[in-house]
Amino acid sequence: MSNKLIEFRNVSFRYSENGPWVLNDVSFQIGENEWVAIIGHNGSGKSTIAKLINGLLFPQEGEILIAGKKVTEDTVWDIRKEVGMVFQNPDNQFVGATVQDDVAFGMENRGVPREEMLNQIDSTLKAVGMQDYRMTEPHRLSGGQKQRVAIASVLAISPKVLVLDEATAMLDPNGRKEILKTVSQLQSKQELALITITHDLDEIAQADRVIVMNEGERWMESEPRNVFSKMDELREIGLDVPFVAILANELKKIGVSISKEPLNHEELLEDLWTLNSKT
User: Fold this and answer.
1) How confident is the model at residue 222 (pLDDT cuts 50, 70, 90)?
2) 274 φ, ψ (degrees, to nearest 5)
3) What is the pairing mode between strands 23-31 and 69-70?
4) What would the pLDDT profile of 80-139 be if each residue is shown by its tens digit?
């Protein structure tokens, strides 16, 4: 792992004094420039983790450090300069009359000089492929376009961490694929730790590492290929297994030699093609 950027140290959280623990003694680390997917069924605690990272919530037990700084009510505004979040419904994040206004909002609040702000608007909109919609009213955009603008608005403040909390949940398959492609390109080009919160295993293939949450605890932590191989266990905790993993498993049952657990259809087809060329 690269240098530690996020640390959860024995974190426990519940929403009310007498309520159940939503997180129970959770510990993990995320490094600089690392892509970590946090997955789990509804109620597993994954979205609570996102809110704790950004100081929207504070743990009752344990501690959270962002870039070496403990997340507290006194440090929360400094923390939010380092952590940008994109939520499931982008309409809840829009504050500007146009795309340009929305991207500018966070920089205006931080007193960024106008010339620097204009350059940042240009570069962030170009990074997410929305430069041609600069003067468009946000409500006229498609769901995928809105999420691109939401991502641009967060990137404009130059965070060290980008958190996508179920950010593709409301999109159709094509929109979901485009957003994941966009964030993958951004993460590879910029010095950025990326955390994707999801219940969809199809979204985790590109991540460096996966943290699987179950009933408030860190149930598993591994690379995506190894997670995909745990089909029966994943089903037991309420997660849908990707079709490509199911197909690969059925092929193995009938004697087809699959060399590795496929992350996507392309890998499976390549494996089958290689196998066929040897026969």
Assistant:
1) very high
2) -65, -45
3) unpaired
4) 889 988 888 888 878 888 999 999 988 888 888 888 899 889 988 988 889 999 999 988
With tokens 């960024």, the residue in question is 112
The answer to whether the beta carbons of residues 271 and 258 sit under 8 Å apart is yes
- Rounded to 10 deg, the angle between the 143-155 and 173-189 helix axes is 20
Angle at 167 between CA 204 and CA 156, to 5 degrees: 110
pTM of the predicted structure, to 2 decimals:
0.87
- The DSSP annotation for 92-114 comes to GT--SSSHHHHHHHHHHHTT--H
| Encoded tokens for 229 | 């191989």
Token pair for residue 207? Answer: 């991540």
pLDDT digits (tens, 9 = 90+) for 26-60: 999 999 989 999 999 888 999 999 999 999 999 99
Q: What would the two tokens of residue 127 be?
A: 């990074």
Phi, psi of 253 (to 5 degrees): -65, -30
C-alpha–C-alpha distance, residues 131 and 112, integer Å: 20
H-helix or E-strand containing 35? strand 35-39
Q: What is the pLDDT of residues 259-279, one digit of tens each?
A: 888 888 888 888 888 877 775
- The answer to whether the CB of 204 falls within 8 A of the CB of 210 is yes
For residue 211, give every residue at least 6 positions away whose Cβ sits within 8 Å of its Cβ, in sequence order, or none. 28, 36, 37, 38, 39, 218, 220, 221
> 237, 173, 234: which is closest to 249 by C-alpha?
234
Q: Are strands 217-222 and 209-214 parallel, antiparallel or unpaired?
A: antiparallel
d(CA 277, CA 259): 14
Count of C-beta atoms within a 10 Å radius of residue 254: 6
Q: How many C-beta atoms lie closer than 10 Å to residue 23's C-beta?
A: 26
The residue-averaged pLDDT of 220-233 equals 92
Compute the distance between CA of residue 154 and CA of residue 105 in angstroms, rounded to an integer: 10
